[in-house]
Amino acid sequence: MKSYIFSVVVEEDKFEDGSMAYHAHCPALQGCHTWGHTPEEALINIQEAVELYVEDLIDSPDGIPVDPEKGVLERDTPSVVVNV
Q1: What b/e sequence results for 1-26 when a residue is b if at least 16 CB atoms lie within 10 Å of its CB, and e otherwise?
Q2: Quick check: pTM over 0.70?
């Protein structure tokens, strides 16, 4: 079993009506982005989006991209990531 760690970006944004929102994306996975009403909600949503994206990559010929410069790390052992 391998572990993959993906860096994500959560930024302040606004809805069309001007209310606060938070946009989250994963730079290493083109098109993998989402939003939330709070930074915590955006982080939960981007984790789910990354997991779904990676599930599709497992079956693709290109596999999961590993690029430390884009914030993707691969470990040969199971890992836990803690965000604080």
Answers
A1: eeebebebebeeeeeeeeeebbbbbb
A2: yes
